[in-house]
């Protein structure tokens, strides 16, 4: 006798339960269905890859955030909160760290709604003033954004790489970073990125390198910094390591800020750009040939030559 629809559903649920899954029914706004489906797909992909949103590197990052979370360093009666570095922390900052940790644990699903102001106040037991202070910090760092109107609330955002680079560069300038430090750091980071590019380069990456070198053919001494650094930004992207890419790009930006290249005469700049193009082409060809020794040698020579351009 054929099983009924209800029996087939019961059998299916029993099989999935045995596999470690659970049946869950969600009632969500129709406009959010696509977001939930996207989030579920991301989770399934991570499981297929044998990873989890909270993997080892991410767990280390969460641990660091925990260190930044307030701890009581004064008698309980005073309730004065300070972080692991001894700095006083406001309720808004505590809430900011809490929401950031929650987003990281979710796997940073861009576009996911975190809740309305009233919902977030209730979830975190926070005042409106503290929550709004936390939201200002989240928006400042492009971690989350407020959407008004229909479906209003706080949503997970995509951080702005260029804004992060600019913020770190400003701090390093304040800290008095010296040209020799920039040069030494750039040498280490660019060679590390180069090694990863050679290990991970695919057909698309090869094509992008060829196109970049071909696109530089017409450059001369009138080229802007963005045009001359594009090759290096591409290598940083192709290395596939987000942290290395970020730090490499920051150092590239700092090196340009301290360079005397754009204050030189046109004839001198024409000569330098011709050499830059030659080095870029040599590095690109070595990378495409998977010749690590040749690629590293060319890049090291190039970076050593930058010394004469820095203040």
From TrEMBL:
Keyword set includes DNA-binding: yes
An example Gene Ontology molecular-function term: DNA binding
Domain HTH gntR-type, chain residue ranges per copy: 89-159
Protein keywords: DNA-binding, Transcription, Transcription regulation
UniProt name for this protein: FadR family transcriptional regulator
Organism name: Paraburkholderia rhynchosiae
